Amino acid sequence: MAKRVCYHLAPRGPFHFGERGVGMEEVSVLLHADTLFSALCLTLAELGEDLESLLAAFPRLRFGNANTPQALSGAAPFLLSSAFPYWATKKEGRVTGIIHIFPKPYMRLRLQASIDDPKKAKLFKKVQFVSKPIFESILKATPLSFTEEHLIQGNKIWLTSDEKAKIPAERIWVESTQPHVTVDRDSNASQVYAVGEIRFENQAGLFFLVDYNKTEWQPVIEKALRALGESGLGGERSSGRGQFDLFIAEDFSLNLPSDANAFTTLALYWPLQQEIQNGILNAAGYSLIQRRGWVGAPGNLNLRRRGVRMLTEGSVFTKLPTGALADVKPLDPENVPTVPHDIWRYGMAFPVPCRIMQEDRDE
């Protein structure tokens, strides 16, 4: 059985997790698992760790010169979730509890009473995140009582009444843009542009889970995380963004259903063609996201990685999702790789058992 560890990132300043959009204004409050994995790999390489052995342990799908896929077998030594918001309750300066926030699963929620009010129904659809007790109730298909008085963060987060009372500001983070200036080296002309950022409240931050199938990797990953705390996660690190303090909890657990018949993922998931052929998307609830970006390896910073379409956190499946590392090495017009080393994007699911009703399976 895998060892589950929860890592809390207490920000020292704002984060910039870029989202697809115009310029650098668009940001996400989530640190997706593929971004986190890339940051860990680059840091491990800088620390002199055996990165090749780590990557070789994961299932991977490489594309050849003719774009023909070639599966590379492996059993993941650990699984990463994406990072989600948390709120730490404090008394006399000491942490007394943590409210963990999860993505609302893409499944029909069981409510104690139907929502007849159109305004209330619209608010219900707007909810993107739920707290841990509500998430666990959703996993078990337990009927819930929805009330708009328990929503915060612009109605994006659904809490219990006790939890809401512990967040007086009724928000966990603030999204804003900051002006920056760039100067052309030839003409000395200046140009102003805006950079989006996420700034968490003093008692808030991000957390993610790691399931260690091989516990010898735990000290290695934690060494990289401490180094990342100093160098920063995400974009605009040269401006001081992305730094954090690391807090580790090895006693984290989820109250899971004993009669689970489905799974929801807490990480972006890239299903293999064989999984799709075996029906992983049948009766599934999911949303898609296009993942792109630039090569982060030294000497290749001007090259764009190949795009990968993934299923988002909270997607629900009636079969166990697995995924793999996707080969995103840039190709030239003749489909020949232009970078001398492999570039992988993390696409492993982080499956959590859940229960859905028969009528949901039949849809």
List strands and helices in order, with pairings.
Elements: E1 3-11, H1 33-46, H2 51-56, E2 60-63, E3 69-72, E4 78-80, E5 84-91, E6 94-103, H3 118-126, E7 129-131, H4 132-139, E8 151-152, E9 157-158, H5 161-165, E10 173-183, E11 190-200, E12 204-212, H6 218-231, E13 244-249, E14 262-265, H7 273-277, E15 288-291, E16 308-311, E17 316-317, E18 323-327, E19 344-348, E20 351-354, H8 358-362
Parallel strand pairs: 2-18, 7-9
Antiparallel strand pairs: 1-12, 1-13, 2-3, 4-12, 5-6, 5-12, 6-7, 8-9, 10-11, 14-17, 14-20, 15-16, 18-19
Fold and architecture overview:
- The protein is α+β, with helices and mostly antiparallel strands.
- It has one domain.
- It is 18% helix and 30% strand.
- The chain contains eight helices and 20 strands.
- Strands 1, 4, 5, 6, 7, 8, 9, 12 and 13 form a nine-stranded mixed sheet that branches. A four-stranded mixed sheet has the order 3-2-18-19. A three-stranded antiparallel sheet has the order 17-14-20, with no helix packed on it.
- The longest helix has 14 residues, at 33-46.
- The protein is globular and about 60 Å long.
- The two termini are 33 Å apart.
- The mean pLDDT is 86.
User: Portion of residues in helices?
Assistant: 10-25%
Number of helices: 8
Main sheet makeup: 9 strands, mixed
Using the alpha-carbon principal axes, give the shape: globular
Q: Ranges with pLDDT <50 over ≥5 residues?
A: none
Q: Secondary-structure element sequence?
A: EHHEEEEEHEHEEHEEEHEEHEEEEEEH
Radius of gyration: 21 Å
Number of domains: 1
Structural class: alpha+beta
Strand content: 25-35%
